[in-house]
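FORM 7B: Structural annotation worksheet

SECTION A. Query
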Amino acid sequence: MMISRNTIREGKKRKNHQPIIIASLLYIQWLYATSHHRLVDENLDPVNKVTLSRRLIFGILVYLIVIGISFVYLQLSIFLFTMILVPAFLSNKAIHRIAFGRSHRTKP
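SECTION B. Predicted structure
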């Protein structure tokens, strides 16, 4: 993918911070909904609660890292920004293994 110098200059002049704001607000809503079981069922599996929280935090961290890198190297930041899609295609089992370091099912 070729990016012209004008595009790079315009990209450095104006940053779009909407994704990080939206992801942060979503995380705040999730924390509010799950704390003291305000808006979720009391039987919600704590593992699912923690896994979703870590997925949201992962997105926010990727956004922050990519914004920082975009000040130095725009092409790399575009590639890294696409990495936010990786967790969307991973199974819950894989996400749990990444988050907790083991499989979500315990063997008998």
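SECTION C. Observations
Residues 20-100 form one domain. The chain has one domain: 20-100.

SECTION D. Sign-off
Analyst initials: ____
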